[in-house]
C-alpha cells in the first residue's frame, strides 16, 4: 500500500506537492469515488483517476540530457518552439524536466517520470551544487567575484554563498570565462548575479549537477542514469537535507 499522492507522482502526472493539490481540489478518484483528504493509501489493484483519466503505472525512468541553447525546459510550448521532451519521442513514458535551464542556456538537465524523485531534488533544503561556466562581457573585478562568493542582493532577495573561479580572461576582446557553483534555482539566477556586478553573460552552460557531468555527450544527446546514480542522487539530496534541518 502506498500513499495516493506518491502513486500519482510516480505515474509522472505531477510532483508530489502538485499531486496533493490535485487531491484537495477534488480532481482525483479512487475506484470511482472522489478523494479530497490527504493520507489515503492505495494498492496496485485500486483504480486511480486524475481528471477523469485512469493513470497508468509506469516504471520510473531517469535521463540526463545535454540541452542545447534555443530549447525550452518544458513538455510543451504554446509558441511551437522546441522543448526538451522532443529529444525523447521514442519513449512512451511521460517524462518532465527536473527544474529548468533557460532558453539561452545549454548544459546538463535531468528528466524523469518520477515526481517524488523530482520533488526531492528540487526541494530548497536539498542544496545540490550546480556548476555553470559563463562567458561574460567585460572581465569581472576580483572584489566583485568575492561579492558573488559571499552572496549578492537581487530583487528577490540575497543569494546564498557561491563558489567562483575565474578560468580565463581575454583583455583584447574584454571577455572572461568564469566557473560558478550555486545550489539555488531561481529564475535566470546566474545571469542576474553577474548583471548585479556589471557583467552581462554572453553564454552560459551548466556543466555539472552534483556528481553528474556531460562527459561523452554532445548537445542534444541524452543517456539513462544508472540505478546506482539514481540511488546516489537520492542519498545526496537526503544527506544535505538532514544537515540543514
Task: Please tag this protein with its features.
245 residues, 3 domains, four-stranded antiparallel sheet, alpha+beta, Alpha-Beta Plaits, EC 5.4.99.-, Structural Genomics Hypothetical 15.5 Kd Protein In mrcA-pckA Intergenic Region, Chain A, RNA-binding
Walk me through the topology.
Elements: E1 2-3, H1 4-10, H2 16-24, E2 28-30, E3 33-34, E4 41-42, E5 48-50, E6 53-54, E7 62-67, E8 96-97, E9 105-112, H3 115-122, E10 130-137, H4 142-150, E11 153-154, E12 157-158, E13 163-170, E14 175-182, H5 189-196, E15 201-209, E16 212-213, E17 222-224, H6 227-244
Parallel strand pairs: 9-15
Antiparallel strand pairs: 1-4, 2-3, 2-5, 5-6, 7-9, 7-17, 8-9, 10-14, 10-15, 11-12, 13-14, 15-16
What would your notes on this structure say?
With 245 residues, this protein is an alpha+beta fold. The chain has three domains: 2-54, Roll (Structural Genomics Hypothetical 15.5 Kd Protein In mrcA-pckA Intergenic Region, Chain A), CATH 3.10.290.10; 62-125 and 212-244, Alpha-Beta Plaits, CATH 3.30.70; 130-209, Alpha-L RNA-binding motif (Alpha-Beta Plaits). It has six helices and 17 strands. The protein has helices at 4-10, 16-24, 115-122, 142-150, 189-196, 227-244, and strands at residues 2-3, 28-30, 33-34, 41-42, 48-50, 53-54, 62-67, 96-97, 105-112, 130-137, 153-154, 157-158, 163-170, 175-182, 201-209, 212-213, 222-224. Strands 7, 8, 9, 10, 13, 14, 15, 16 and 17 form a nine-stranded mixed beta sheet that branches. The two termini are 28 Å apart. The mean pLDDT is 91. This is Pseudouridine synthase. Its EC number is 5.4.99.-. One of its GO terms (molecular function) is 23S rRNA pseudouridine(2605) synthase activity.
